[in-house]
Automatic annotation (TrEMBL):
GO cellular component, one term: membrane
UniProt key word tRNA-binding: no
Native species: Ceratosolen solmsi marchali
TM segment ranges: 12-30, 42-69, 81-105, 111-131, 138-156, 162-182, 194-215, 248-268, 275-305
Protein name: Solute carrier family 35 member E1 homolog
Record has Transmembrane helix as a keyword: yes
Signal sequence, start to end: none
Compartments (UniProt record): Membrane
Pfam families: TPT
Amino acid sequence: MGQNVEESKERREFLAIVFLCPLWYAVTSSSNVTAKALLSDFPYPITVTIVQLTTISLFSGPLFNLWGVRRSSRTLITWNYYFRLIVPLAFGKFLGNVLSHVSIWKVPVSYAHTVKATMPLFTVVLSRLILQERQTRKVYLSLLPIVGGVAIATLTELSFNFTGLFSALASTMAFSLQNIYSKKVLHDTGVHHLRLLIILSRLALFLFLPVWLVYDVRNLLYDPATGGAVHISSRTLNLLIFDGFLNWMQNIVAFSVMSIVTPLTYAVTSASKRIFVIVVTLFILGNPVTGTNIFGMVLAIAGVLCYNKAKYDQRQAEKKKSTLPKYVSPKQNGHSNFVVNGWVNDKHRLLAV
């Protein structure tokens, strides 16, 4: 019986890699190319983000109901918890998306994704500051090629823009924080990860509609250059709709892959996706690059792969140390374990958003 279950899991992971990963790569690449084309003609990143959040909010509910995604969590979410963790998560989601759009607008997509390869660095630092997590020496050493690769790519980037660099770094930090706290929310509440996606998208849309109305809508209604409203062409409108749809699909496919494969497989496929996006956007958008610039990109991505392997080895070592159950007082329930009748259960599942 146990062998059949294991074989079923392996089959699902194999099918996810064969079918869902190529789809994920294709959708992500298309989304980035579309966003670059859109923002080049329509430099309003807040509006682009609002359209994406609206698309997720409108279309996800009916689809998840059709899929039978559960609505309720195992515990009641109090208002205190909601305002302490979920509202900041929604804020981080919006901020991360806007800054990501600014980076794509200001610098080539290939360079923006190279800078985003620094996410392990932010994750390690923030986990140390927030959760007091210590890493192995291998994990720390794996960060060196990431930092070095991004530094080389930055110094040799022909279309360098400081705003684009700062936005890419800030969005990466925002997404790292979002990953850390999303894991905590999923662990604490048991809410389905796809339902959390809807909650955060709808809350972010509600919170930032006033910002959009005051900032972008005002600028769209009055253009100082013409003295009238900004003309939105049918091409721009089509790109806005298509970009929102692609972003929605990207979120669905990413969460589907995440829910099927192991954490290591997801980390490796995510790094491979970044390589695919860089290559595709270099080929389609044709921004000029040098050999040294490409070397920096490759070095940064290689560092990410080394980081994933180092984290996997660290998790395996921790599992070996905790093969025997350890009795603790129910009052000693920590942030990373469930305590059931005084016994530690380390088999809970944490998924990043």
